[in-house]
Rqc2 homolog RqcH
Amino acid sequence: MAYDGVTLYHLINEFKPLLIGGRIRKIYQPEIDEIRLLVNLGNQKKHLLLSANASNPRVYMTEKIKENPSAAPSFCMVLRKYLLNGTIIDIAQHETDRIMELSVTAKNDFNEIVVRKLLVEIMGRNSNIILVDESMKILDSLKKVGSTSSRYRQILPGRDYVYPPENSRLSFLNLDANHLNELLSDYKDSSVEKVFVQALLGISPNISREIAFRSGIDPQTSVSGLSKKQKQFLCEAFTQVINEIRQKSEPVIIYLGRKMVDFSTIDLHYLRSDHRFEAYPSISEMLEAYYFMRDKALRFKTRAANLRQQLDILVRKNIKKLDNLQQDVDASHKNEKFKLYGDLITANIYAIEKGQEIATLVNYYDPDCQTIDIPLKVNRTPAQNAQHYYKKYNKSKTALKHLASYVLETEEKIYYLESLVNSLDQSTELAELDEIRHEFLHSEFNKKAISKEDKQKQLPSKPLHYISSEGFHIFVGKNNYQNDFISTKMGKNEDCWLHVKDAPGSHVLIVAGGRFITEKTLLEAGNLAAWFSKSRGSSNVPVDYLEFKYLKKPSKAKPGMVIFTNQNTMYVTPTQDGVESIEVITDTN
């Protein structure tokens, strides 16, 4: 959900009892686009975060403290000059737009009490934090906007502050049924979903879809196609949603399966059927959790991108090498004919004369005894020609032996590299990413010097921990270090170990715990093994399973590499629903 006017409306209502009357004791600027205010109210200390980040502009109270730069940026110094030790007397929202106005009383140069406002505009890439005086004249801003960027609205010290253009949009709090009917007439060419977004300040597509859902109308329906009855339903649904917004907030983070997809401060009925809602006691706590997880995912993606690129290059390089080796193997197999040439020349040695260019001989090894033309060197005797072909045959046979070992070695390299790529696909935590990077840096594929920091041993991350429908504990490795831990440290002889057949994937362990492992639990674990593998998108994926006692890790084997015997094979078609239906213990991640 966009950080819309509804979210800000609820947040300001949450702020008022906690911040109004508080004194601003400290002002920091830990990031180029982020301001933090420490506000004291009685014995309470609140950290207010104001961010004009182009991707994630936001306002909320935070518990997470960031390190501050040794020298404060100029805008931070201006805020300290005008707001430090000031008292917050009001927090308001401009109309229902995404603009928060923080009114602060402080003394001016003449020791007079004056009111200044800190305006936070949450407008995507145009977000800004602006300080104005009592006459709404700009004192300074986080981002300067000159005439070259905007002819309508310059954000520069000394200029009068002008609110962002509203484009004739109205506050959603000041709209009754009559006005709404007029609005529908004015926007008859729009869809039901778009009309509220286009006509009202602070309404996001999520809220608009919720209104349409409660009215029983498809949000893509054109307003011009609505019947009088449908318009009535739409007006009733709009009134119901707005009344709920006025009365209370319900801060939740929304998940699709286990993936965080959105947040909301109202109950979105249209998402109830296939989404999961995680409730929070306050909007600030909800926003902090949401943006923390979102920032962590972004940092993970950024840090994983470089390693993935290196691995992809190495995989392609070794696949090409394997292809060339296979061509050499095919060529060596074709050289089997040289032995035949030698044998036929030797069998007919007295029928061939020196100086012949071609010997046409009967192929005794052919059931039909057809003749074959054998090229000869004119300056060699028949015996020398036979020896020449025997040498070529022996040379190709020797090469074939070496090629077989090179092919096997290259296949093992590809398998190992693809196991690292698969680990990247399964990992979600920075600690897991650090383990994969540490493993790669200490592998034969890294040609660069290892820094002192990278030589340090990584703190181990934990495998995924599931509980089967019948109460068995199932562990799933998300990288080779976790796989090693599962396959060498965790299991007991009677436990069951699983792995997708002939493809990189996670090691999976079912802990028997003195019980007989049922077929149902085995299938659930097989679904996990197939899902957390390179074969995730396939059907009828073969999964090997065996008792843990038949598993062994060879000496000096790479991380995650094991050998086993006495396995059986099941076939499963992995599905996301099947994986998400298994209970996961999140505190082990």
In short: The chain has a mean pLDDT of 89. Residues 308 and 421 are 7 Å apart (CA to CA). The longest strand covers residues 23-31. The first helix runs from residue 5 to 19.
